[in-house]
Design a protein that fits this description.
heterodimer, A: about 325 residues, alpha/beta, TIM Barrel, eight-stranded parallel β-barrel, four-stranded antiparallel β-sheet, globular, B: about 300 residues, Rossmann fold, 2 domains, seven-stranded mixed β-sheet
Chain lengths: ~325, ~300
């Protein structure tokens, strides 16, 4: 049975990646998990310099969800390259770096550092973090800026460039096309949804930053819809993200046209989630008499629309089953 | 698993936690809202140290999403069990408290940096605020096992908050209860009998505290004024327990770096040197003064 997929030239042994911000730099889970079972890991967001992140409180639980404003606390790209990459080299899994910047130039600068470092499989460009005052959503909320950031990163690296799109926009297809035209090799869809939780006793936001990003099973139907819309809009592959906690959640994204998926908040709930989802994927393929996970990609029978995998030149060219 | 807190020091990861489905093997109701829940988790039972915790969640339902951190009250290596002191306060703890014996929870442990045991001949003074007694009771057990001695100042609003009062004593242990309403022990804050004890103490002592932030802050001030070493076990909302979500961070002074830094309560703590903690409401200028003082000492 084949579980391997290929995204923008990156071969993943299976379609499951750990989402940025939910798996640290990977090394935190050494000894707790066998990291080699993961298709890949996307690092916590990295700027050129270390970052303090947002004031506390930073997380609050909501119905079937998690609202966070961590604010991209991080060690900076140089410490990552120096301290983390050598340790991660011994784990047989694809390591992607989530690239952040306050300015277009900073995104490019981080990407340039990554380009010269060994052991990085690709770059996820974070133009969608809702919890920083500069960069982040400011770039991902404007198609012109999206194009500019992606093109700037594209110019300085041979690594696959994978912008992470925001759901906090009117039509994600516009942003997906803008990123594709600027040279993106794949798309990650979606980042968290902008939310606000209020402490009614204090009449203040529950989070120190004020607003936050909503993740977890609460956002899954929105995420599947937006990943599906993005996949229909572009030729490059789409990685689905949003509330995946079990195999059928992952399959929703694959069937909707995503070539791979990322597991985020569920890593906090159950460090063994990847193993569980993988077992469920194998079981599903077996039950459906399939021997390749790629054969479910884009097989959504949507009323009035052709199956994504039947449309030549769209993101779902997985080969329909 | 925990990291060294030496500023700029190498990250030391010790005692890898193990993620398990754990059956509830014993359930004991204490008072109106508290329970002792005992789960079978062999690795935690064997290796956990006082001050460490587990991340646990009843069942596998989506609601509430996250596991909850609980300090370890006691372990039994022979029976491979770990006992938690749980109060039903929110959806996560309520579901744990509603578990029947034989039902299963998901549990990751042992986690966090433990208390530093007192050196030989140093008296341990433990200050507990209500629910915060759990990790200190574990520390007392360990002290008893090694022939040490300790005094537990056990405070609460009323006598009903001192649920474990009849379970914390024993050879070498003195228990001093205090309640704000005077219904049990001395009337007033628990730091009043602590200060009286310190005024009379002759030998060297080391403080350990766990309870509400204002109580731990008060203990930190007392330790600072008297140049005593103190460790506090901080409570924070945690997402993961292993240092990846960065949701549980607290402000900790890093003298070598000249300013405070956010540190994870889960992996850099939950036990911290009280002199390094920047308490809620404290500003950075006070922190700078404090670290400057420390540098001079």
């Amino acid at each position: 049975m084949n579980l391997a997929v290929e995204i923008a030239g990156i071969r993943l042994k299976n379609p499951l990646l750990a989402a940025s911000g939910t798996f640290g730099y990977g090394v935190e889970y050494e000894g707790i998990l066998d990291l080699s079972i993961l298709g890949g890991i996307v690092s916590k967001g990295l700027y050129m310099e270390p970052r303090d992140g947002a004031p506390t409180p930073r997380i609050v639980e909501t119905p079937s969800g998690l609202l966070n404003a961590i604010g991209l606390q991080g060690v900076g790209i140089h410490a990552f390259v120096r301290d983390v990459l050598p340790r991660m080299a011994k784990h047989d899994t694809a390591l992607l770096v989530n690239v952040c910047g306050d300015t277009v130039e900073e995104y490019a600068e981080v990407a340039r550092v990554c380009d010269g470092a060994p052991g990085i499989a690709g770059l996820e460009v974070n133009i969608s973090c809702p919890n920083v005052k500069k960069g982040g959503l400011a770039f991902g909320g404007d198609p012109r800026m999206t194009r500019e950031v992606v093109a700037a990163v594209r110019r300085v690296t041979r690594l696959p460039v994978i912008p992470k799109l925001s759901p906090n926009v009117g039509d994600i297809a516009v942003f997906a096309r803008a990123a594709e035209e600027a040279g993106a090799d794949a798309l990650s869809c979606i980042n968290t949804l902008l939310g606000l939780a209020v402490d009614v006793e204090a009449r203040r936001p529950k989070l120190g930053f004020g607003t936050g990003g909503l993740s977890g099973p609460a956002i899954r139907p929105i995420a599947v819809r937006m990943a599906w819309q993005a996949a229909r809009a572009v030729k490059i592959p789409v990685i689905g993200i949003g509330g995946i906690a079990c195999a059928s959640d992952a399959l929703e994204f694959l069937i909707a046209g995503c070539r791979a998926v990322q597991i985020g908040t569920a890593n906090f709930v159950d460090p063994g989630v990847h193993e569980r989802v993988l077992a469920g994927l194998r079981d599903y393929l077996e039950r459906h008499g399939l021997d390749d996970v790629n054969s479910v990609v884009g097989t959504l029978e949507y009323p009035g629309l052709p199956r994504p995998c039947d449309v030549p030149g769209t993101g779902g060219e997985g080969g329909c089953a | 698993m925990y990291k060294s807190t030496d500023p700029g020091g190498a990250v030391i990861i010790a005692r890898m936690p193990v993620n398990r489905v754990v059956p509830l093997v014993a359930r004991e109701v204490l008072g109106e809202a508290y329970l002792l829940l005992t789960f079978r988790h062999p690795e935690t039972a064997r290796e956990a140290r006082p001050g460490q915790f587990v991340m646990i969640k009843a069942g596998i339902s989506a609601e509430p999403p996250l596991r909850r951190p609980f300090s370890i009250l006691s372990t039994d290596a022979a029976r491979e069990t770990v006992t938690l002191f749980v109060k039903a306060v929110g959806p996560g703890s309520r579901r744990l408290c509603a578990m029947a014996e034989g039902e299963e929870a998901q549990c990751l442990g042992p986690l966090g940096r433990p208390f530093t045991p007192p050196p030989a001949g140093v008296e341990a003074l433990l200050v507990a605020g209500g629910y915060g007694v759990a990790p200190l009771r574990f520390l007392l057990d360990e002290l008893r096992g090694t022939g040490g001695r300790g005094t537990l100042f056990y405070g609460g609003r009323t006598g009903a908050d001192l649920v474990l009062l009849d379970r914390v004593g024993g050879p070498g242990v003195t228990v001093v209860p205090a309640t704000e309403d005077g219904s049990l022990g001395e009337r007033g804050r628990v730091t009043v009998p602590l200060e009286a004890h310190l005024d009379a103490a002759r030998g060297s002592v080391r403080l350990y505290a766990c309870g509400p932030d204002p109580m731990m802050h008060a203990v930190a001030r007392i330790a600072s004024a008297r140049s005593l070493e103190a460790e506090v076990s901080l409570d924070a909302w945690m997402g993961c327990g292993v240092g990846t979500c960065l949701g549980c961070v607290v402000r900790v002074q890093a003298p070598a770096e000249g300013r405070w830094k956010y540190r994870c309560a889960c992996t850099d703590g939950p036990v911290f040197d009280s002199a390094r903690v920047l308490w809620p409401g404290e500003d950075e200028s006070r922190a700078r003064r404090a670290s400057a003082q420390e540098a001079r000492r």
